[in-house]
Amino acid sequence: MLTFVVLSVLMIVGAVGVITLKQPVHAALSLVATLLTLAVTYVTLQAHFLAAIQVIVYAGAIMVLFLFVIMLLNIQGDQPQPHFRWMQIVAYLTALLAAGAIAATAFLSPRELPNAELMSEALAGGGAAAIGEALFNDFVLAFQLVGVLLLTGIIGAVSLVQRKATQTAKDERELSGV
Amino acid sequence: MNDIVTWAALAPVLALLGSLINGLFGRRLKEPLPGIIGSVAVGAGFVLSFIAFIALLGRTEPSVSLVLWPYLNAGSFSLELGFVIDSLSVIMMMIVTGVGLLIHIYSIGYMHGDSGFSRYFAGLNLFIAAMLILVMADSFLLMFVGWEGVGVVSYLLIGFWYRERLNADAARKAFIVNRIGDVGFLLAMFLIFKTFGTLNIAEVNEAALSLVFGSAALSLIALLLLLAATGKSAQLPLQVWLPDAMAGPTPVSALIHAATMVTAGVYLIARAAPLFAQSPAAAATVAWVGALTAIIAAFVALSQKDIKKILAYSTISQLGYMFVAVGVGAYWVGIFHFFTNAFFKALLFLTAGSVIHALGGEQNIDKMGGLGKSMKITGGTALIAALAISGAPFLSGFFSKDAILSASFNSELIAGYGNYVIYAILLLTAVMTAFYMFRWYYRVFAGSERLDKETKVRLHESPSIMTVPLLILAFFSVVAGYIGLPEFAFPNWLAPWLEQSIEAPVNFVHRAVLTEWLLIGLSVLAVAVGLGLAYWVYHLKNAAPLARFNQGFLGALNRFSQSGAGFDGLYRNVFINPGEGTAGGLAAVDKEVIDRGIRAGFVSVGLLGRLLGLWQSGYVRIYALAMLAGIAILVILLAVTGVMA
Amino acid sequence: MPLVLPDIDWLTLAPLLVLLSTASLAALYALYNRSSKAVALLALLGLAVAAIFNLQLFVASRAGELRSSFGLRYLADQGALAFNFVILLGAALAILISYDYLKRAELEQPEYYPLMLLSASGAMVMAAAGDLIILLLGLEIMSLAVYVLSAWRQQARESAEAGMKYFLLGAFASAFLIYGIALIYGATGFFSYPQIVAGLLAEGFEQIFLATLGGIMILAGLGFKVALVPFHQWAPDVYTGAPTPVTAFMSVVVKTAAFAALLRIFAFIYPELGVLAVQSLVVLIALTLIVGNFTALVQRGIKRMLAYSAVAHAGYLALAVLAAGNLGMRAAIWYLTAYTLMNAGAFAVLTLLSDRNDHGDDLERFAGLARSRPYLAAAMTVFLLSLAGIPLLAGFVGKILVFSAAIEAGYVSLTVIAIITSVVAMVYYLRPVMYMYFREPEYEPLQTNSRSTHIAIGIAVFGTVLLGIFPGWWYSLLDLGQSLLAGL
After folding, report:
1. How far apart (Å, rounded) are the C-alpha atoms in residues B320 and B234?
2. Residue B602 pLDDT
3. Is residue C201 within 8 Å of C246, Cβ to Cβ?
4. Chain A: residues touching B (Cβ < 8 Å)
């Protein structure tokens, strides 16, 4: 229980850091921290397979990509715009209120925690088998649709980039023609 | 289609066909041809309506309903589109097509040489089609189709000469004012459906009769229908659009804004008579609206200078009479006055059109006078029409107006709501009517000529294609009243005929024959006073006594009358100026956002729209914040209810 | 461990698979041949074949046959199939409009069409989803493609901005949706609708507040897609910035799919949630009707006006959602059919009036159109009158159906608001009509070769008028006497 509380607090602090830190690199690192704490939480829940995936895919591959992009584009933190000062306050206030209300609602009715022994038993061996079964049975359609989603993303990204290229080439041609 | 009566259902189809031909191929047709096509289409409709009328005459139950097609069947909402041809609608159909035909023929001469000749006839035919659908509809929904249809065509024709800014503005004013009436119609339909579970008029009427007398739902429906009717029939407080609508071509004013469309409100109330007969409060409201409209419009008509505006106000006033008739429960009388009014009012407008035509567009009566000498037919028929509308004895207007007066005097339906006061108001209005009509006649057709030199040279009687319709209308203006003679002493054909279709039990006090004769005598006296006054002022004294109307209290009265009893100014101050004032404060927001048409009536509403546009700033973060705020409010509500529980 | 294979009824998946394979094929073909014409035709062919499969399924479902795949996660009930027709129709119209437009704006690139097909297939997944995860994935597939499409005119700042804005806010809204799904899962332990309902109704269930919270979040997420106030503000900016055919696609296909999903979960899950879940929608509808209609009143740009009108129509449609159940469902399907025809038609006319840079959609463009291009003006008049709800056109019947469904469900005061605002709406819809007929032309009309757009306009006019005069046939096809929604 104590570990869970500590981990949760860390996770929330990391998440808040992502959206409040000014430097993109700092924000990205904060996100890494959040994702890693999440992986640790999985471990405490006996979901070793999930934890491993979490580290490899998110904290590893995706975050490295993020950092690369940030460094390559040399993104600087944006300056706070005084014009939106009041808005920031309103936004924080609203978010706080909403979060408070959500928390209040969530704890309105007590609920029993799932039986830890049963869970461990189900996830014996890291849970890879259980995940695999769920993925290729109950969630097989979702699994396939994620593939379609990725395909859409690829076609979309390629067509946007490619168009930029053809457009530039065309502009250059026109310029040289003149 | 075995029944010959059902052939009359083809009348709107023919008119629609004529409209389509003129609309699609009109530009390729040589000039009189679109007019001929239009006239033939309407004429055929008239023949069919007349045959249906003759066929219905001999029947014990003069009503034929014809289902066109099952429209919708959705849950408890089921509706068939159909026509009903009964003694009420057949009269309306004959007037619409008959007077319509004459006006079509007249228009061939009037619109001669106009670049929009075929467009004009396409619009006119479309109007006839929509109006026929309105009167033949067997359900409120189909009636609404016609209702909107005549409205749309009327805006198109008001703005027919749209190159003049004023005309387009008038069309928009009519449009916006009529939207208020639409709210009434739609909400009434909604309530009718909710109360009775059907929109079929016959079923609603039957159900209404079995409902508790004076129940709140009934009164509300009736009042909403009244709101719809005031919009279309230009009654208080929505009368402001009709005078401006005179910007359209004069035959259009004659057909749409005098004889037919504007009476749709009266027809609506007569059709839904049981709803009103069961709700005295609503009925009394109808009668009072009519009475006040009648006298105020007559008062305004006293001082107007535009040859058509006088007639427009007189139309509003006459419609007020009809409203009183249907308000006091004398539904057949309302239709009777519609019937006679259609002839003499169309005739008045057509003579005015003939004058305007001859004078090359001049409309100010101060620049006319003495036209009767050179325009004999126009002048003669105008005199007949003026006598008829004033209620001179033995002409059509006399009988129908007298029937209204006596009905309001004798009504038991609104007995507790001041029916004698209404009677007195109408009697006074009758005096004023006679006066302003003869002011109109003397200023235009009699007395000294006040024309420009060059106009005088061009002055001519209109061609016979225009004068023949005048003569026909004049004939009917004389005789049309004899179908509805006073019941107490003479045979009356119209009342029993119409009451077969309008089953609304309204009682009238039966007075002694002497009293009835006395009432008639009073009406005659009223006409005589008004006529005599006009004769004295304009004929004997040549308008000299009017000098004192330039100053003091009388002067103020005069100006008040000229301003249309101050309604336009009032609406400007109440609805438009405050909106503009506040809008000026928000001048930072794009100033031309609001279109002029909107400004003309909807600025207060437009202001709301502008305020709403303020948070449409274009910044993603504001949008996201708005979303978050929306969620937050809902979630907080949930948390609060949760904690409370 | 015994391996349980999922049940797959391939016919139920056929329309979806046809669209997906056409999209892939078209994308591959585009690698070798850059002819837009061929790809567009291929896309239309794909839509037609999908429609044929869909028809077969529809006929079967009318015979009372209920098909589904993956244990009720992918449904081919009558509701989903009817929505599929609407989606396919909307996509076909959008493609027809796009072809001329892209050529004129020199934006031709064959990848456009596969993206549109992918988006449409995402929409079909949403309509068929019987599971919150499937719903989410369908929504993302559909949206992702539309994000790219709305930024298609990259060289124009507004278009890139529109794409970006839509993407950012869409992601924000998706977060709400996902959060809502997670909460429902947290409360009940299930994703698929029947199981969720069973969980909610189970004895000893105590997490009703958590589930209601989830319901509200899902409502917000889907409310964003259909542009309910206050989740609507992206709509005017994105509608104006995106290329007009994409706007047309967005306003009909995206809206249809989101409503299909909303209708299904609202009919199934929401009645079992706390009252506030339903009450929230009531508030949102009232706001949407008022804000949408009154803001539309002060717009000068037609595209912007149509954007706000789309917001307002979302309000009317949500009224049908509120009247959950068979009647509301039928009304919504019918309304969306009509809406697809008249709205796509209006946007199609708009593409013919605006110039190459998509500028000039303000009222003045319409001045005197009745003179310069009478048939185009007549078509536009039909669309606008129908949107305004003038009788005997499709939009009017849609309103009647929705209103009567709402009355039946007992939402009287909301219906009164809807009626009054619909009269206000007449003012802004008829303003362009006045301009077309009462003004002298101020611009030379563009002379363009636009056969496929004309075909689209023709279909839309024909459909709008036909559905308006004979609304019964399509409505009665939706009538099975039993629920349109399969499942429970």
Report:
1. 9
2. 46
3. no
4. 84, 87, 90-91, 94-95, 97-98, 100-102, 104-105, 108
Cα distance from B258 to chain C (closest Cα, Å)?
24
Mean pLDDT of B589-602: 39
CB C363 within 8 A of CB C431: yes
To the nearest 10 degrees (0 to 180), the angle between helices C302-322 and C255-268 is 20
Q: What is the DSSP string of B370-437?
A: -TTTT-HHHHHHHHHHHHHHHT-TTSHHHHHHHHHHHHHHHBSTTGGG-HHHHHHHHHHHHHHHHHHH
* Ranges of each domain in chain A: 1-77+114-129, 139-178
Tell me how close the Cα of A51 comes to any Cα of chain B, in angstroms. 32
- The shortest CB-CB distance from C401 to any of B74, B597, B602 is to B74
Strands (E), B16-59: none
DSSP 8-state symbol, C202? S
Which is more confident, C68 or B294?
Answer: B294
Pairing between β-strand C67-69 and β-strand B77-86 as defined by DSSP bridges: unpaired
pLDDT at B615 over 60: no
CATH classification of A1-77+114-129 is 3.90.1640.30, yes or no? Answer: no
Are B630 and C230 in contact (CB < 8 Å)? yes
- How far apart CA A147 and CA C404 sit, in angstroms, is 43
What is the DSSP code (8-state) at residue B245?
Answer: G
Q: Is the pLDDT of residue B591 over 50?
A: no
Residue C379: its pLDDT value, please? 92
Indicate the number of domains in chain C. 1
Nearest to B539 by CA among B354, B372, B296, B301: B372
The reply to whether residue C118 touches residue A155, judged by beta carbons under 8 angstroms, is yes
The reply to whether the predicted model has a pTM over 0.90 is no
Question: Measured at the alpha carbon of residue B631, what is the angle toward residues B626 and B635, in degrees to the nearest 5?
Answer: 150
Q: Which tokens sit at A64? A: 């490295």
Q: Name the β-bridge partners of B306.
A: B364
pLDDT at B592 over 50: no
Domain presence at residue C38: yes
Calculated CA dihedral for residues B390, B428, B264, C389, nearest 10 degrees: 140
Sequence-ordered list of residues with C-beta below 8 angstroms from that of B645, at least 6 positions apart, any chain: none
Please state the rounded mean pLDDT for residues B568-581.
58
User: What are the Cα distances from residue C260, in Å, to A91, C257, C269, C328?
Assistant: 32, 5, 14, 11
Average pLDDT over residues A39-55: 86
Distance CA B429, CA B419 (A): 15
Mean local confidence (pLDDT), C311-333: 88
* Number of neighbouring beta carbons within 10 Å of residue C25: 16
Contact C217 B631 (CB under 8 A): yes
Of B67, B110, B40, C131, the C-alpha closest to A138 is C131
CA distance C95 to chain B (A): 29
Sign of CA dihedral C26, C31, C37, C38: negative
Cα B439 from chain centroid (whole Å): 23
Which of B625, B632, B642 shows the shortest C-beta gap to A105? B642
- Report the 3 state secondary structure along B599-641: HCCCHHHHHHHHHHHHCCCCCHHHHHHHHHHHHHHHHHHHHHH
- CB contact under 8 Å between A101 and B638, yes or no, is yes
Summary mean pLDDT of chain B: 81
